[in-house]
Amino acid sequence: MYNQEKCKFSKTHEWAFVEGDTAVCGISDHAQHEISDIVFVELPKVGAKVEAGKSCAVIESVKSAADFYAPLSGEVIQVNENLNGNPALINQAPHGDGWIFKIKISNAKEEENLLSFDAYKATL
């Protein structure tokens, strides 16, 4: 479980749990409630370069599709393959088994642009 109080959040509801020069990324609990029943996740490829604020994955629910925007820039070093067989993991545990990918951060200064959990909550 990636403690959401230790995560950093984008204004578009993605989170990053930063450990050194890597980050685990996913969508917030609030966002998964809004999207509702997730049925498919189009994951980026390992090795792909993602750019903060740019779309890099797609999350589909029974009612719509939503872009996932990278909270930080970097290279994808791992994707959550479990989402291929069970995308509902995002609904069940968005800060646990429902993480989306891990990146090697390319610009640590970007973390300053993300919100603390309390600041993120204040935007909801």
Structural write-up:
- This protein has helices at residues 29-35, 82-85, 89-92, 117-123, and strands at 8-9, 14-19, 22-27, 38-42, 49-50, 55-61, 65-69, 74-79, 101-105.
- It has 124 residues and is α+β, with helices and mostly antiparallel strands.
- It has a single domain (4-107), classed as RNA polymerase II/Efflux pump adaptor protein, barrel-sandwich hybrid domain (OB fold (Dihydrolipoamide Acetyltransferase, E2P)), CATH 2.40.50.
β-strand percent reads 35-45%
CATH fold topology: OB fold (Dihydrolipoamide Acetyltransferase, E2P)
- Order of helix and strand elements from N to C terminus: EEEHEEEEEHHEH
Query: Briefly, what CATH class?
Result: Mainly Beta
Instruction: Quickly count the helices.
Output: 4
Would you tell me the overall average pLDDT? 96
Label the overall shape: globular
CATH superfamily: RNA polymerase II/Efflux pump adaptor protein, barrel-sandwich hybrid domain
Helix content: 10-25%
Gyration radius, to the nearest Å? 13 Å
Major β-sheet profile: 6 strands, antiparallel
Structural class comes to: alpha+beta
Question: Residue ranges: pLDDT <50 for 5 or more in a row?
Answer: none
The tally of strands reads: 9
Query: In CATH terms, what is the architecture?
Result: Beta Barrel
| Tally of distinct domains | 1
- The span between the termini is 22 Å
Strand order of the largest sheet: 1-2-3-9-8-5
